[in-house]
Amino acid sequence: MMQDDSSGPPNRELYALLHLSPDASDEEIRRAYRQWAQVYHPDKYQAPHMKETATENFQRICEAYEILSDENKRQIYDIYGMEGLKSGLELGPKLNKVEEIKEQLEKLKRMKEREKMSAHFLPSGTIVANLSMPRFLDGDGIMGGMAMGSQFQSQLSKRNAIAIGGNLEVNEDSGGGVASAVFRHQISSVSSIEFIGSAGLRSLIGVQTTRQLSLHSTATMAISKSLHDGSINLSNSWTRQLSDTASGNIELLLGPEPSVGVGWRKKDQNVSAAGDVKFGTHSFGISARYTRQFSSKSHGRIAGRIGSTALEVEVGGGRKVSNFSTVRMLYTIGIRGVSWRFELMRGGQKLIIPILLSSHLNPVFATGAFVVPTSIYFILKKFVFKPYYLKREKQKALENMERTATQVREAREAATKAQLLLENVANRKRNKQQETGGLVITKAIYGNRKSLKKGDELSETNDELASQVLDVTLPLNFLVNDSEQLKLHDGVKKSGIMGFCDPCPDEPKQLYVEYTYRGERYEVVVDDYEELLIPQAAHRI
């Protein structure tokens, strides 16, 4: 009944077992232990099978209390979970205070991170293939140009890192390349310095330093010298955190082409947006872009640019096709013509294929270039991609059920036995609440999110999905307190609660509850780690 789940907050199983908040005080832990010990103490039961079940659960309760009531053990458990308690972390006999234990644990954690960083090697690369339909129709070939770039970064030590990269570009009859290297040194926790050098078309040397001025502000200053013409560029930028999700920046560039720019960035769970304004002595530019996540796998994007060398609008979207791969298609219309751009991103690698469809702005052609591929996409999505993904997800779910069948069966048996010992008290509480018109749980189902539907539809779920849910009406009635309330704590996985289990490991789960209060009917659905507090007027049917 105590399953790990990497999808949610870690190290909370013992809190769920005792029905406690992770922030529970020592007194609350003692009170919860006494309550559960009274229910599951083996001496209360005479029947052998009941005594055996009570003994198993009583031992679990004692283990949870032993850990959570010990300040040192609780601190280790909160950081590293049961693995930290059982792995024999060598803290030393002199570490008696919580602060000392935490400091040593963090030191061990930092050592592991340093070992990981020292072996860290992160490559990335981009290939851009420019295609041109006008060139192809003129008989000059479809390839308008090609560019390749590659870079790898390595963490040499905790404070030092190096990045080495190169770019090659071919455009019609000309081409060139550049090789670059950057060495970064972390001077302190708030400042760093970078030494930059490149050779090729843009040969230069430079140095850049960054410093955190305050909790919300950062400044960067850089100076570089071109090895071709000897010109010097000096840049200064300031970035400030405007809110939890937004930041702004100002950049000043002094050199052969001086400019000043202002930018804004915002990013939260579902929306990413940015805007930039830049003015120079010979040019200006304004750009904006907006990206929205429609789901965990798909997103849409719109962007616009206007300036001395550009006037265009870009719309499109992308989809995550695997854990590491994303595809995206964008449509662009502007003074340079009408074009498509296809992007494939996998890990740190990118393949970008811009296709210039027309260098002239023909309204009919521009409309068709947008409508036709959009229609094809939605047709393929409905009749090809979606059925395929649903079939694949169903197959994965079946494989997962087969793999965890024994584990789930044993967990169900343990949950059933635990509920059996709660039955007398739960029924007594329910009857008392019914007599006073208080809080009565009439139906509670926990399990696979796809299986849970409100009302009568729940009973019509097919057998396959029904096997991935568990009736938890009895344990929830047991948890109703004398104040006619029920609270399940935020951040605590519900499968760890006494009388619960995980009926579908690795699948997203929810809890559906129907209840009555003061003669009214209510219902609510909450996610696995979400807080549940009832009764509430918002739940009224």
Cα(first) to Cα(last) distance is 32 Å
Helix count from the secondary structure assignment:
10
Strand content: 35-45%
Report on the biggest sheet.
Answer: 17 strands, mixed, barrel
The tally of strands reads 23
Describe this structure as you would to a colleague.
The protein has helices spanning 13-17, 26-40, 48-68, 71-86, 98-118, 133-137, 363-403, 405-436, 463-466, 473-479, and strands spanning 121-132, 143-155, 160-171, 174-186, 191-200, 204-212, 217-226, 232-241, 246-254, 259-267, 271-280, 284-293, 298-307, 311-320, 325-334, 337-346, 349-358, 440-448, 469-471, 486-488, 509-517, 520-527, 532-534. Mean pLDDT is 87; it is low at 1-8 and 89-96. A hairpin with a 3-residue loop joins strand 10 (259-267) and strand 11 (271-280). It is elongated and about 95 Å long. Helices cover 31% and strands 39% of the residues. The chain contains ten helices and 23 strands. The strands form three sheets. The chain has a 17-stranded mixed barrel. Strands 19-18-21-22 form a four-stranded antiparallel sheet. With 541 residues, it is an alpha+beta fold.
